[in-house]
Amino acid sequence: MTLKACVFDAYGTLFDVSAAAREAAREPDFPELAQNWQNLAAVWRDKQLQYTWLRAVTGAHCDFWQVTQDGLDYALAASGLEGNPALRARLLDLYFTLSAYPEVPTMLAELRAAGLQTAILSNGSAAMLEGAVSSAGLSGQFDALLSVDAVGIFKPAPEVYAMVEAALGLRPHEVLFVSSNGWDASCATSFGFETVWVNRLGAPVDRLPGKPKHQLSDLAPLPALLTQNTNA
To answer: How many domains does the chain have?
Structure first.
């Protein structure tokens, strides 16, 4: 089998979804975050994902920026922090320009130096993806930024994974799909991709039909793994 491209989920995989709350907690204007930013970040992320699944099931699609705001509003209320528009605005500003994980720039440069196509396939809106890529200094490191906006449904709908073939001109077995979401990696496996689950938190494998082919604790070993599979 020859792998020709590496396609990444964005949030939690390339970009640190906890960074917005963590960075806001360091700012003197928001001392109320100092003790509970981790809980806020976790609830925000959980609700963000839950709302994508519920909207996909009910056919009530909207862009991911709206889902991100809705998830934040729930998390602020659950944390007793609602009613502070300056805090809400700051968290959203920081989320739009999330930091990449530290190993990401070198990892992408190594993949591209090896002649592999790279792309993002994400629930994120086109504007969100462009903002994150630009602010992280990763412009020019991807052959495509693929947003679910083009098909009007969130992951793990198969229509989303099918976007890769149309954009890159590759069959699923020629693609390594990488996600920090176990459910995403599992569903991508069922679709036909070779998969890597970036299991940053050491979580158990999801009980779903597809199982990720590989597990990594971060993205640093990915170029060596992909090169081995490409040359196999």
So the answer is: 2
214-216 vs 194-198, strand pairing mode:
parallel
Distance CA 152, CA 172 (A): 21
Structure tokens at 26: 């360091």
Shared domain for 25 and 139, answered yes or no, is no
* Residue 211 and residue 106 share a domain: yes
Report, as an integer, the average pLDDT of 63-67. 98
Q: 83 is in which domain, residue-wise?
A: 19-96
The answer on pLDDT for 227 being more than 80 is: no
Residue with tokens 């998830």: 71
Residue 118 and residue 29 share a domain: no
pLDDT band with cut points at 50, 70 and 90 for residue 121? very high
pTM: 0.95
Catalytic residue annotation: 9
